[in-house]
Design a protein that fits this description.
The complex is a heterodimer of chains A (369) and B (389). Chain A is mainly alpha-helical and 369 residues long. Chain A has 16 helices and no strands. Chain A has a single domain, classed as Na+/H+ antiporter like fold (Up-down Bundle). In chain B, the strands form four sheets. In chain B, strands 1, 2, 3, 4, 5, 10 and 11 form a seven-stranded antiparallel beta sheet that branches. The chains are: A mainly alpha (369), B alpha+beta (389).
């Protein structure tokens, strides 16, 4: 089995079996209490993802950014067209659901990459696409959130002004966190252990500050990671590997993710959920195939890349959470659309990414030691 | 093994095969060619990146001369230059090839670097490049195949005849330490300072057919030796000899194989120019006697050059005297100056003297580590130096 299924699938199944959906050993209050742990794990992952957003690369390969944008835009368009024009879902709801759908689950791709010790052109491109589609989806949700809020509670704020504040504030927070981090790094030197503690500490501080100021946690962390990659001119920060030391947090994250699944989500998979998943993948594949030739990517690389981008998981739930917080009814309707798609991809996503990387010849089954 | 059985069954066919396989293709004397094995690294932590396939797919058609080839593991590529008569043309081609592949590497978000070893890669993480030959090498040598992720420069010198090649092969033996010290660029291996200037050659030593060519004095004698080895099933082709220097009959050259890949293509070309001038002098004077004495101190001298670079102590078996590699190199460079001038390699010799005065690339790498404190930063600088950025 370990030659086919990634470890993540095991964690999710374990969580599902132990959770309220089946055995109930992990109760609802326990899950609620553990949410902070899951958020912290996700924080580390999103920061790590930001570090993959190498803008120098985009400068040298002029097709990289257009391809990443096309992949996000086409998958958004496919999902939006399905939900709005075929499913008859309201514009704002369809837009929010499709924006959530643009992002590939960073936790899944990073963990599968670590598990397979995958490295190579497809893996590198996959992580770049995931970083970019997460930035675009996060920016999109950050911009749409005030409009949802305004619709739910009446317009106490100008939604456009609030959207702008969320964007600018989150960006600024990430930037400040980065400058603090390099300041500390200068003092700490380049030893791996102090730098690991520094990175983890900055991620926790940024999560806390973003929550306190009601800013976007995800956006602030992505900015922090991207700055660490692109603005650290003197190379004061070393590329801390969270893989091993933070493994336990990632296991917890996926067990908790599994525990949120319910049997009925699978039993009552609406056609819309399945169609949502298919439209999303078709949009991504179409963009990758169309631009493969000018971007000097082989057809095989394009198809494995498209397959590797399949997972939509933790972050989608992370993204819908703020919506639940500000507009519970809207959140519930959104969940009805997205959750069945997410449930399908919880099972299929990690398997697809694993299969794609092994097929690309960049990951070795059984490589993890 | 199959060919050995055939040889026993049919002696006439064996002779046919011998002639067919080891015909020494004559080439213009003193022509030059260089093979450079290079490392591919990612631009995140600067560990090795298994991107050889992708780089070859993108860049093969654009290389200005020579060819690009895969090597034993996926993180290596090899540049083979075309044949040149003079150093300036060789240097120009190497610069052109470097610019083409460095450009493609940037688009792939990887970098290319010189150096005889990658300072901190773990050999067990490597992936064998899936060609029939490399898979069979991996099968034959086990973990040595992955440990062979080291990077060397081979210099080819054109020879008019096979016997000229045999003479040159022997006559160059006393100068191999000079090549080793000039090119040494592998002080770090598997994350530690090995205290060697060239740790790469110690890895080559592990192969059973490493060392030097036996003391044959003619091409005919060499063929007899080769046929015996073939008949005994010890080798299948010339490629199985991992010698420090060997004749290359299909190219009509002698191939010097002791050099680490230097950190710059310019240095690689200078070393080739040194080999060319040395060959010209050795052939013109023709004074080297092929005796066992030639090899008596070779292992010691080779080790000294690997371990200490220019500061290594050379023993002269004929006179019993000693001097450092650096002192002897200075003498040899002076002696070869007229030949360098005749070959148009003056500029190369000026650069070689500078290297001798300022230190080789092993020293450069150690300085980079002292300044930055991490091997990741060392490789980052190494890659920038190679790309000329």
């Amino acid at each position: 089995m370990t030659r086919v299924l990634p470890a993540i699938t095991g964690y999710i199944v374990t969580g599902f079996l132990l959770g309220p959906g089946v055995l109930g050993w992990l109760s609802e209050p326990m899950l609620e209490q553990s949410r902070v742990l899951a958020e912290f794990s996700l924080g580390l992952i999103v920061f790590d993802l930001g570090r993959r957003l190498d803008l120098q690369w985009a400068r040298h390969d002029r097709w990289l950014l257009p391809m990443g944008i096309a992949e996000s835009v086409l998958s958004f368009a496919a999902m939006f067209a399905l939900l709005h024009f075929i499913g008859g879902i309201d514009t704002l709801e369809a837009a929010v659901a499709s924006t959530v759908g643009v992002a590939t689950a960073p936790a899944v791709v990073l963990l599968v990459t670590n598990e397979l010790k995958a490295e190579g052109p497809v893996t590198r491109r996959m992580l770049w696409h995931v970083a970019l589609n997460n930035v675009l989806a996060t920016v999109g949700i950050t911009l749409l959130l005030p409009f949802i809020e305004a619709r739910a509670a009446g317009a106490s704020w100008n939604p456009a002004a609030r959207a702008l504040w969320l964007m600018a504030g989150s960006f600024l927070l990430g930037l400040i966190a980065f400058h603090l981090m390099t300041l500390f790094a200068r003092w700490l030197g380049k030893s791996p252990v102090p730098q690991f503690v520094l990175a983890v500490g900055m991620v926790i501080a940024t999560v806390g500050a973003a929550q306190a100021a009601r800013l976007s946690v995800l956006l602030a962390l992505l900015v922090l990671g991207a700055c660490a990659r692109n603005l650290d001119r003197d190379h004061r920060l070393i590329d801390v590997d969270f893989g091993r030391a933070a493994q336990v947090f990632f296991v917890v994250l996926f067990v908790l993710t599994g525990a949120t699944l319910r049997v009925d989500q699978f039993g009552a998979i609406a056609w819309i959920g399945l169609a949502f998943v298919i439209a999303r993948s078709l949009g991504k594949m179409l963009a990758l195939y169309t631009l493969a030739w000018p971007a000097h990517i082989s057809a095989r690389q394009a198809s494995t890349l498209g397959l590797a981008l399949t997972p939509i998981a933790g972050l989608a739930i992370g993204m819908t959470q703020p919506i639940y917080d500000v507009a519970p009814e809207f959140g519930a309707r959104l969940a009805a659309i997205v959750v069945s798609g997410v449930a399908i991809l919880h099972v299929l996503g990690p398997v697809a990414t694993r299969y794609a990387l092994v097929r690309a010849g960049e990951g070795e089954p059984g490589a993890r030691d | 093994m199959r060919s050995s059985a055939q040889a026993k069954a049919n002696p006439a066919r064996a002779t046919e095969r011998l002639v067919a396989m080891l015909e020494f293709k004559s080439s213009a004397p003193l022509t030059l060619g260089v093979e450079l094995e290079l490392m591919l690294v990612n631009t995140r932590d600067y560990n090795l990146a298994p991107d050889a396939d992708d780089l070859l797919r993108r860049a093969t058609r654009e290389a200005p001369g020579g060819e690009l080839k895969p090597e034993i593991t996926q993180s290596m590529v090899e540049i083979n230059t075309s044949v040149h008569e003079r150093y300036p043309e060789l240097l120009a081609e190497l610069h052109g090839t470097r610019d083409v592949i460095a450009g493609h590497a940037r688009k792939m978000n990887v970098a290319i670097a010189g150096g005889g070893t990658h300072p901190f890669q773990k050999w067990s993480d490597r992936k064998i490049y899936p060609t029939e030959r490399f898979l069979s090498v991996s099968e034959k040598y086990g973990f040595l195949a992955k440990q062979f992720t080291v990077f060397g420069q081979h210099v080819h010198i054109g020879c008019a005849s096979a016997d000229d090649a045999i003479y040159l092969n022997h006559a160059l033996i006393p100068y191999l330490p000079h090549f080793i010290a000039l090119a040494a660029s592998s002080p770090f291996y598997q994350g530690v300072d090995t205290a060697f200037d060239s740790s790469r050659l110690s890895i080559v030593n592990a192969f059973p057919l490493s060392g030097t060519m036996p003391l044959v004095r003619s091409w005919q004698e060499f063929n007899r030796y080769y046929d015996r080895m073939l008949g005994l099933g010890i080798i299948a082709s010339m490629k199985d000899f991992y010698w420090d220097i060997r004749p290359k009959p299909e190219y009509g050259t002698v191939e010097i194989r002791v050099c680490d890949t230097p950190l710059t293509v310019a240095c690689a070309a200078q070393i080739a120019a040194f080999a060319q001038a040395l060959a010209r002098w050795l052939w013109e004077t023709h004074t080297v006697e092929i005796t066992p004495d030639l090899y008596l101190a070779h292992s010691h001298n080779r080790f000294q050059a690997c371990r200490h670079g220019f500061a290594g102590t050379l023993v002269d078996a004929a006179t019993g005297g000693t001097r450092t590699v650096g002192e002897d190199l200075r003498r040899v460079l002076d002696q070869l100056a007229p030949h360098a001038r005749a070959l148009g390699s003056d500029a190369a010799f000026v650069a070689l003297r500078t290297t001798l005065e300022q230190g080789n690339h092993a020293g450069w790498l150690r300085n980079a580590f002292a300044e930055t404190g991490t091997l990741t930063d060392v490789v980052r600088r190494q890659a920038a130096l190679w790309a000329g950025t």
